[in-house]
Design goal:
mainly alpha; 2 helices; 83% helix; rod-shaped
Length: 65
């Protein structure tokens, strides 16, 4: 009985630590994504065209003249 409660306590501790790590990783991922999007949007505006169009620029460029 005593051993069981002890392992349960350790399990809760591990679970809490895992959720804390997950939250930190999510925050880090969100910050990275937002920073990337910010730079991506600024770079696209700086070039005067949508970043998504860059991949198709040769085809659209030749079609529109």
């Amino acid at each position: 009985m005593h051993e069981n409660s002890q392992t349960e306590g350790v399990g809760n501790e591990v679970r809490q630590r895992a959720s804390k790590d997950l939250a930190n990783n999510l925050n880090l991922a969100m910050v990275t994504i937002y920073t990337f999007l910010l730079f991506f949007c600024c770079f696209g505006c700086y070039k005067g065209e949508k970043p998504a169009v860059m991949g198709f620029s040769p085809a659209t460029g030749s079609a529109t003249g």
